[in-house]
Write a structure and sequence with these properties.
The chain is of the alpha/beta class and 408 residues long. The chain has two domains: 19-61 and 98-212, Rossmann fold (3-Layer(aba) Sandwich); 66-95 and 217-402, Rossmann fold, CATH 3.40.50. The chain has 17 helices and 14 strands. The protein has helices at 2-5, 32-46, 49-63, 73-79, 98-111, 125-137, 147-152, 154-162, 177-190, 208-216, 218-231, 246-252, 282-285, 323-331, 341-355, 361-373, 395-402, and strands spanning 18-19, 22-23, 69-71, 83-87, 116-121, 140-146, 166-170, 195-197, 237-241, 262-270, 287-291, 294-298, 335-340, 382-386. A six-stranded mixed β-sheet has the order 3-4-14-9-10-13, with helices on both faces. Strands 7-6-5-8 form a four-stranded parallel β-sheet, with helices on both faces. It has a two-stranded antiparallel sheet with strand order 1-2. Helix 5 (98-111) packs across helix 10. The longest helix has 15 residues, at 32-46. The chain is globular, with a radius of gyration of 19 Å. It binds pyridoxal-5'-phosphate. Pyridoxal-5'-phosphate (PLP) binds next to helix 6 and helix 12.
């Protein structure tokens, strides 16, 4: 497993963790030794068959992998064009792709003798996955979560607490993912000895973007294996939603060398990508800068101050994007588009009613783009979209937008 999951695409990052001009590690002196230790441990683990045997065992028996590749027949018929497949990562234990990566990082933390795990979370899915794996291995877990997200993702906050994690609401900024990540980094600097920072997406200082991508690449690797016996060829188009970009990198990475496969990342267009900046489409509406230890596209004002952005989806509400996406965009290997809150909500409802699947609001953005392009594509065109999370956590948000009161 190890060989084909890692190093299959050799162009990035370089030994400084840079993807072109993006990535790198912009961190304080205090953190540098920790980051170098982590990099060394990950390099050892990458080629250690025992590490990958343990990952495989947990992926199979704890997470429930491989997740199915499902032909969305009714949606395909309804749209009348391309043939639509969904990679069902919402069926994983804890309901999203986040656990694929958390398992890898927690196993590394234990190899490094760390006993306290910290994490940031937006939608709460990464927090739930981290709390879950910490409970499984008896580790202390502290999750930083923006106060706004604590409110809009209440079921996940309760889940984390049930699993024994301490959830720390973050009130700075607009109380979303960026602010949670700031506080997690602050915690890490002050607790360097026993603490491991488990980052939930392909962002942060090197080696996180490459390491998280490698752990999530199981998604694309399975798609490759699953589509061949079904269709006898690779998909024509891959589509995934992007917050920081981990589920998307996980789907895309094993296909990067297959130049005939079109790759589309979908950012959160919020209320529309324009000067009001009420969106989280960093590639479409931002420019390069430095945040959370790496250089990438960011939403910022003329002075370089980070803007808060907006998305209906807590998991996409991040003003940056993983550096590898920034690079794939610049070199033209992947395309990036945006979908508004309204379009995502419509896709959410259509998915519930045509496929009997309640999707999270994050993959609803990917689905909305599928809905946009599928009708004009030929019937033998194969689209695979990543259904990276289930929608239970979002029913209160959706109800509110539909004007339905389900709280009382
Ligand atoms: C279900 C789901 N999908 C997507 C995301 C966005 O993260 P990423 O872009 O790293 O996959 C999140 C983040 O919380 C999520 O919960």
């Amino acid at each position: 497993m190890a060989d084909d999951l890692v190093n299959s695409y050799k162009t990035g990052p370089d030994d400084q963790g840079r993807f072109g001009i993006y990535g790198g590690r912009f961190v304080s002196e205090t953190l540098m030794p920790l980051i170098l230790d982590l990099e060394a441990e990950y390099e050892r683990a990458k080629t250690d068959p025992e590490f990958w045997a343990q990952m495989d065992d947990l992926w199979t028996h704890y997470v429930g992998r491989p997740s199915p590749l499902y032909y969305a027949e009714r949606l395909t018929e309804r749209l009348g064009g391309a043939k639509i497949y969904m990679k069902r990562d919402e069926l994983n234990h804890t309901g999203a792709h986040k656990i694929n990566n958390v398992l890898g990082q927690i196993l590394l933390a234990m190899r490094m003798g760390k006993t306290r795990i910290i994490a940031e979370t937006g939608a709460g899915q990464h927090g739930v996955a981290t709390a879950t794996v910490c409970a499984r291995f008896g580790l202390k877990c502290v999750v930083y979560m923006g106060a706004t997200d604590v409110e809009r993702q209440a079921p996940n906050v309760f889940r984390m607490r049930l699993l024994g994690a301490e959830v720390v609401p973050v009130t700075s900024g607009r109380g979303t993912l960026k602010d949670a990540m700031n506080d997690a980094l602050r915690d890490w600097v002050t607790n360097v000895r026993d603490t491991f920072y488990c980052i939930g997406t392909v962002a942060g200082p090197h080696p996180y973007p490459a390491m998280v991508r490698d752990f999530q690449s199981i998604i694309g690797k399975e798609v490759k294996e699953q589509i061949m016996p079904r269709e006898g060829r690779l998909p024509d188009t891959l589509i995934a939603a992007i917050g920081g970009g981990s589920n998307a990198m996980g789907l895309f990475y094993p296909f990067l060398d297959d130049k005939e496969v079109r790759i589309i990342g979908v950012e959160a267009g919020g209320h529309g990508v324009d000067d009001r900046m009420e969106h989280c489409a960093s590639l479409s509406g931002g420019r390069p800068g430095v945040l959370h230890g790496n250089r990438t596209y960011l939403l910022q004002d003329a002075d370089g101050q980070i803007l808060e952005g907006h998305s209906i989806s807590a998991g996409l509400d991040y003003p940056g994007i993983g550096p590898e996406h920034a690079w794939l965009n610049d070199i033209g290997r992947a395309e990036y588009v945006s979908i508004t809150d309204k379009e995502a909500l419509a896709a959410f409802q259509l998915c519930c009613q045509t496929e009997g699947i309640i999707p999270a609001l994050e993959p609803s953005h990917a689905l909305a783009h599928v809905i946009k392009i599928a009708p004009d594509l030929p019937k033998d065109h194969l689209i695979v979209m990543n259904m990276c999370g289930r929608g239970d956590k979002d029913i209160f948000t959706v109800a509110k937008h539909l004007g339905v009161d389900i709280q009382t």
